[in-house]
Amino acid sequence: MKLLTNLLNSRLLALIIKELRQILRNKQLIFLLLFPPTIQLLIFGLALSPDVKALTLSVVDYNQTQESWELVSTLKENDIFNFKGYQTDSKTLSQQVRTGNITIGLIIPPDFKRKIAQEQTAEIQIFIDGIDANTAGIAQGYLSQIVQSYNQKLANSQDSELIKPEVIFLYNQGLTSSWFFVPGVIGLVLTLTGTLISALTVIREKDVGTLEQLLMTPAAAWEILMAKILPLFVLLSGELLLASTLAKLVFHLPFRGSFTLFILLSSLYILVCIGIGILLATLVKTQQQITLISFFFNVPLIQLSGAIAPTESMPPFFKTLSFFNPLRHYIEIARSLILKDVGIETLWRQALALLVFAVILLSLSISRFRRQLG
């Protein structure tokens, strides 16, 4: 009891109370303690789901009989697959997989019904986009289970196999996980370094007081800003070339698309990152604050990009929200150009999105920076 009384009357307790009051008066600190962890917990818990669902499926049915329709209905009834309708021929189907419109393509042969009636094995062909090795492997497992269940429904004995799926993995036949993750990591590296370094470059001038010295020089505001943007662009372009070289030499990524187009669209994304960094720098006053706010900003950006978990597995709200994420569009570009032989005619939507983001973010950041210089 005496110890408790001494503690209540001690200088330590008075100092603790003083610090608590000081913390509670700091609204910015309270915001950082409560808001970012709440948002990050929700995004981590909902967006990073290990479940594989909503896999887009399309079918070419050369048989068009009751048996083939029942097989397709069995796949459609499962929540794992999102049926995107029938295609006219296998060439169109493979093109749909190539452009990323569907994940799985199923081809039912013309003799499907006849072989089942004669109790012979009818082979069906399945194309799976193998870029995401984990998703492709799980999709194959789901398909095998569903086809096996349908086999048992058709066959008289448990050992009969009237339908045999022939699965072909496209673009990543060996299901190498690094082929999925490394293009995403290139996007993450550009995002983290691009936003943080560009923000620190601007905020350092404000933090140490040299921004006023720049204002005394006979240079226009746009010259001061361009002198900051161009070196950052060259530095990050060098980082992009280094990351691409390591991806090729260490992880053996094929780079099947145009490497020139990859560099051009990556350069566009670098401008997006620089715009984000400068915009964040205009919102804070110190280097410590920019480190905290960039961490809070970049983590949701990464989680909603599809770099770690496929966007198809996200809840509808986060899936829609991810379309406003420039990193998502860049990762789709990087994976398509590295692993698929596609061109700008396929990627023009993602390229246009990056262009819009670059124009908006650079315009906002330049406007705010010039206002602060004024």
Structural class: alpha/beta
The global form is elongated
Largest sheet descriptor: 5 strands, mixed
Number of E strands:
5
Strand order of the largest sheet: 2-1-3-4-5
How many separate domains make up the residues?
Answer: 2
pLDDT averaged over residues: 81
Total number of helices: 15
* Span between termini: 63 Å
Poorly predicted parts: none
Radius of gyration: 28 Å
Share of helix among residues? 55-70%
Topology at a glance:
Elements: H1 2-8, H2 11-25, H3 27-47, E1 55-61, H4 66-76, E2 81-86, H5 90-98, E3 104-108, H6 112-117, E4 122-129, H7 133-154, E5 163-170, H8 177-208, H9 211-216, H10 221-249, H11 259-281, H12 287-303, H13 316-321, H14 326-339, H15 344-373
Parallel strand pairs: 1-2, 1-3, 4-5
Antiparallel strand pairs: 3-4
What does this entry show, briefly?
The chain has 374 residues and is α/β, with parallel strands linked by helices.
Can you tag this structure with a few keywords?
abc type-2 transporter like fold; alpha/beta; 2 domains; 374 residues; 5-stranded mixed sheet
Structure description:
With 374 residues, this protein is α/β, with parallel strands linked by helices. It folds into two domains: 55-170, abc type-2 transporter like domain (abc type-2 transporter like fold); 177-373, no CATH class. Helices cover 66% and strands 9% of the residues. It contains 15 helices and five strands. It has helices spanning 2-8, 11-25, 27-47, 66-76, 90-98, 112-117, 133-154, 177-208, 211-216, 221-249, 259-281, 287-303, 316-321, 326-339, 344-373, and strands spanning 55-61, 81-86, 104-108, 122-129, 163-170. It has a five-stranded mixed beta sheet, with helices on both faces. Helix 7 links the parallel strand 4 and strand 5. Helix 3 runs parallel beside helix 12 (287-303) and helix 11 (259-281) runs parallel beside helix 15.
